[in-house]
Amino acid sequence: MRALRCVLLVMCVACDGGGETPPTEDAPGILGTEGTVLFSVREVAPTQQGSNTFNALLKSARESAPLTDADITVEVTMPAHGHSSSTIPVVRNLGEGRYDVDQVVFTMPGTWEVVWHVVTTSGIHDHQTYSYEIE
Ligand SMILES: [Cu+2]
Question: How many A from CA of 83 to the centre of ligand 1?
Answer without folding.
Answer: 6
